[in-house]
Amino acid sequence: MRSEKKSGRSFVRARAALVAGTLGLLLAVAGCGASGDSMDNGAKAADGKAAPREGFADEGGAAASAAPEEQADGKKAAPKPGGTHVIRTATLLVEVKSVPKAAAAARGVAEGAGGLVASENTERLDDTYETSHLVLRVPQERFQEVLRELAGSGKLLSRTSNAKDVTDQVVDVESRIATQRASVARVRELMDQAEKISDVVALEGELSSRQSDLESLLAQQASLKDRTSLATITLDLTPPDAPGDDGPKDEDPGFLDALGGGWDAFVTMLRWIAVAFGAAFPFLLTAALAVAVWRVLRKREAARRAAPAVTAAPAGKDGASAS
């Protein structure tokens, strides 16, 4: 019995040793494979020329070009300024001594910076004063420079500036344009392969709709490009002491001011009395004529009533004498 137990224990120990040895051998092989892969990856990273996978050469190259460059310490480099699309606008109200000269100078500044005058409107208030409203388009890189020069052309009364980032919108429109162009190309290929007239007609309608969408996207892209490449500056030029401006006024009126105000009030009162009399004159004239006619008729009625009484009195006297 003891010999059987001993033989069983030895068999178990031998089996456990065999399993442990097998596991150790497997772990050693796995470690060697991992170290070999890490050495190969390190060598590829050092050379910087890792071979692309078959069939993914273009995708890898595009991903490498689109990925931001990394510095030696592992930090990402700053994005390029050209990757941001911003719409800049500004409004200036400047008081100048001579509006025509200031407007000519503003046109020269905009054109000198490579921009243009989108619109100009000059309004003459009277024989002495005039104002100008100009809309200038200047390149984005010269925006701040032109803005400072225009603000310094006179007395700056007000200034507002705005910047709107439309990078996401630009990228979205470009992506939709690429997709729509591919869609139009597919429809054209189907038209070349179509044999039935009904299929050709249906494809022509689909092609017209997709081309219309593509033209709309291209118009949006052109508008965004124009607004992001050229900033807009609205400039209002006004002379000093122009009519309508709140200039200095005397707080305490003098005797002459009071006399002038009283005379104006008196003349205004007479004018309103004359206007009221002129408005009421036809009614007054009609009423006077009616009263005059009424009096004439009343006198005639009284005369008619008195006439019979006068004629009856002599007849009575004759009768009395006859008796």
From TrEMBL:
Domain of life: Bacteria
TM region(s), chain numbering: 272-297
Segments of this protein annotated with the region Disordered: 38-83
Keywords, alphabetical: Membrane, Signal, Transmembrane, Transmembrane helix
Residue intervals of the DUF4349 domain: 85-295
Composition skew (Basic and acidic residues), residue ranges: 46-56
The UniProt record lists the keyword Signal: yes
Comp. bias regions, Low complexity: 59-69
Signal peptide (from-to): 1-30
Protein name in UniProt: DUF4349 domain-containing protein
